[in-house]
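From the methods appendix. Each design record in this collection lists the tokenized structure first, followed by the designed amino acid sequence. Records were kept in a plain field format so they could be parsed without special tools. The example shown here is representative of the layout used throughout.

RECORD:
FOLD TOKENS (340 positions):
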């Protein structure tokens, strides 16, 4: 077998563990030749790759980032280059066929799985692996990268508690999550956030201000607001800055904001993500050996399954309003920005 591997989209902890899981299983169990493409789909377009040996895949389990590099190249998007008659999907297919690949493993989030599905429609054999710190890939209980990001964000919230309490401040921390609030919800609950705001739930500024004033009346020295970056505001500011300004206008208490940013993506993966990425990789290799192409590896109730890429592509997994973690957090006094 000849199998290509690429990592696309934003980086996150666990990518190297996934590359290792796929590559080592293919090489050591199935005797395959593994091609590692650089910089995501850009490597396929420019035919930039290297043969990965078992030695290349050793000692990378704990590393953050990706040894293959990544990019946000979207080969089916009509960019200026596309209009200059550069047919990127055709070039990808040509390079795939010239190398005699039996399958292409695409490791990435929603955009990557959508591109993988489109390549499948072009005639390529494709397998997808879900990664994202946002945990918003449809069809799987969890994507690798999420657990690590929750740990990083939770530690940041823990640290904000001490400085907020020392100065009697309201601290607003903005976490990643353009369209979904999984990271803000989980890190917010784990870090003891007093207010948690996510894109899936509407919020009312007056209700938040009333909640914070009530905490002051109860002599609670500080408050922590955890907000996903995708929470909508009318001034096109960052969510944290918008909230800091608006809440500061409604309450007589000092408000400060922190935008955690790319720290959430970096560093070594958590043990859970190392294990999950390894399991995903090994299962992907099994699917390839059995020629079960056109699927994304997923996990449900701790059981690995294969989902047709057509079911996954273009669908976001959003936090449901009746999620049990939201209910439990509300039961212990956490505000989600609505009147009590």
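DESIGN:
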């Amino acid at each position: 077998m000849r199998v290509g591997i690429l990592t696309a989209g934003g980086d996150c902890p666990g990518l190297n563990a996934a590359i290792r899981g796929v590559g080592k299983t293919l090489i050591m169990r199935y005797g395959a030749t593994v091609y590692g493409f650089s910089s995501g789909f850009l490597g396929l377009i420019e035919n930039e790759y290297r043969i990965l040996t078992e030695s290349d895949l050793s000692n990378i389990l704990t590393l953050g980032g990706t040894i293959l590099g990544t990019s946000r190249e979207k080969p089916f998007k009509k960019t200026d280059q596309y209009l200059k008659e550069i047919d990127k999907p055709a070039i990808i297919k040509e390079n795939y066929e010239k190398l005699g690949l039996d399958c292409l493993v695409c490791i990435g989030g929603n955009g990557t799985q959508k591109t993988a599905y489109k390549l499948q429609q072009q005639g390529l054999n494709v397998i997808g692996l879900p990664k994202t710190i946002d945990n918003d890939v449809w069809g799987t209980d969890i994507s690798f990268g999420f657990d690590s990001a929750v740990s990083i964000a939770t530690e940041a919230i823990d640290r904000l508690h001490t400085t907020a309490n020392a100065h009697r401040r309201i601290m607003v921390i903005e976490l990643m999550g353009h369209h979904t609030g999984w990271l803000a919800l989980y890190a917010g609950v784990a870090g003891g956030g007093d207010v948690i705001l996510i894109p899936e739930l509407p919020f009312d500024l007056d209700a938040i201000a009333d909640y914070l004033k009530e905490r002051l009346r109860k002599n609670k020295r500080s408050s922590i607001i955890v907000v996903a970056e995708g929470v909508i505001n009318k001034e096109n500011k960052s969510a944290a800055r918008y909230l800091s300004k608006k809440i500061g206008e409604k309450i007589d208490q000092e408000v400060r904001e922190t935008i955690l940013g790319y720290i959430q993506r970096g560093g070594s993966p958590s043990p859970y993500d190392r294990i999950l990425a390894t399991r995903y990789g090994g299962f992907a290799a099994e699917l390839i050996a059995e020629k079960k192409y056109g699927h994304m590896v997923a996990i449900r109730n701790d059981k690995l399954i294969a989902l047709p890429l057509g079911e996954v592509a273009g669908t976001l997994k959003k936090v449901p309003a009746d999620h049990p973690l939201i209910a439990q957090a509300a039961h212990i006094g956490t505000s989600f920005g609505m009147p009590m």
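APPENDIX NOTE: The longest strand covers residues 2-7.
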